[in-house]
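Changelog excerpt

This revision adds worked examples to the README so contributors can see how folded entries look when concatenated. The first example is reproduced verbatim below.
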Amino acid sequence: HVQTADRDRTEEFSLYAKERAEGTVRLPPLLLPKTERWLHVRQTLREDHQFRIKNNPEGAQDKFDKLAKSFFKFFRGTALLFYRDYAGMDSHLPTVFTIGDVHPENFGVMPNEDGAPIFGVNDFDEAYFAPFSYDLKRGAVGFYIAAKENGLKKKKRRQVVRAFVDGYWEGLTSFARDDREKWHEFRIDNSPKMIRKLLKSARTERADFLADLIDVEKERFISSDEIVPHSKHIAKFQKVVDTYCEDNDIDSSTKAEDFFEVRDVAIKRHSGTASLGLDRYFVLINGPTNDPTDDIILEFKQSRPSAIYGLAPNITSSENGKSKSSKKSSKKAQDNKASRIVRSHDIHLSGGDPYYGQVDIDDENFLVRERSPYKDDIDVDDLDYDEFCEYASICGQALAQTHARSDEDTGIMEGDAEKRILSSVNPALFTADVVRFAHTATKRLKRDWKMFKQDHALGAFQF
């Protein structure tokens, strides 16, 4: 089912982004007439999923089916379509290491380096160098759509977006005063009531968490619709885990002698939205003691290029703490996809998952992280208007910390990122611009979704 329109247009869009940033007048995709826009949506989605269509057509089909059923999932699963509309824009604004896919469901609970639950950005798959506005705008659209899906009227949706952006400015202003971004974490003892409640509810005992997924006595995964035992590959994954430990400087010297010994392997199915159709494994390893109730589940998630690759106005690398354009470094970041994600995790969080790393399996790059008992998030479907505004503000503050850490302290840029960002815009005016952007972009994405659904019904995404 490969179509001639399925060819990779990465280089063409990279050139387009460069020319647009330089002021060259070309017709951007968001200005295409309806018929051409329809084809652009179809081509971009098929192009973005070519690897999955060829290597895992069932998974690609599963993803497209889910996108057709939910507008919010369509937004979440089509980041490349979103960013191609804004290729080369905002070149006058400071570049940071963006999250790349900010929306209400990409914030949640995760373990810090001490094993305690913390709240913050928890998905770095699309992280890339781009103007700070890329995160704000995508996040604003995400909150606008989620608020719309919750039944909020237009005026209240705008207020939710405003709360998100205002929270961002509040966070940057705070970090500009005292550099708290170097060590701050949203923990149980210092978080707003809403987040404190979430963190407390996320404190699942490891033994109870494991009992839902494995036969603790046999140390084997329990088969289900989402978990397919893959036990015959234990020896293969032992070599993978050994390489992962060595390449990522994972220190196990003070633990049990058989710490990181692989006990079982399983294929994980039906996870995520943007990553549906990519390979994912659960690997059960012996924990720091010989008690099976402290075993650890490592998640191996196949990595992909960031949707922002080639589309940001300034492709940035970090050498000696200075930001500069570098085609070579951007290609390297494109090829080693998981290393980019790991670096983002290390920069954006003051003390994150100690098992975060990357490794190759059968010549494909995989992100590695702990499948933590603390994994939890806010159910945005249950939020009323006031709660939505509060949550949006908190997420804005959490995002501000990730941007504030993209400075000389972590080698991304010279000076303080938060001060450079605050001095680059009029916050009140910029907020108004972002609120309007969220409304306009949502209307266009809704039209795109309707086009996609018609194509989907006609078999354009069947494999």
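The second example, added in the same revision:
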Amino acid sequence: MWEWSNRLLRKKDSEESKSLLAAYNDLLLQNAYAPEPLKKNVSAQKNSSPETTPAPERMQQLLNQRLEEYALNNLTLKECVYDPQTWQEMSSCFTEYQKIRKIFLKLLGYSYASECTKAELTKADIKLLRQSIAPENYNTHIKIPFDFGGGLDFDNLCLIKTHPCHGIIHKLIDLQIENGFLRTYKKIYIPWFEGKIYHD
């Protein structure tokens, strides 16, 4: 996943990685739209094969079990097909994303104050939102990544706790990378919810 939430866009990693980005590199190498030059990263998925990769039904069961274990009761799984984008396409979205992110945070502070309170955000937190600043331990999260069909709009953004919620979402995504599920099926199941602020 292209993780832009609260950080600057980073260049491609050259070291071995188990991240989603490493898996993307493998997929891009198989795709006609792959940016050049692009070196194949070695990761845990290298040793996986279609024979050992869980079937989609089994993967859904496993992910739902994890969601239950983590008590993320308001998250459901959304099946998202991989729609590869080049580095140039992703970079062109970055500037626009930063603008929309600031407007989104301000929108939450002014128009969704009651929902912020339900999510246990304080008055000080709401004040920060109105300044386009994410409160401590909160992240602006892209629900569906752009290369999985997500749009650059308010409906695809949400405010979520960095720890543990945001971290767990990425753990569940990485789980589908390390065993070769994304590479085999060209899709993943993304933990998702309908709303602008995640809370249980």
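Reviewer comment on example two: The chain has seven helices and four strands. Residues 20-85+137-192 form one domain.
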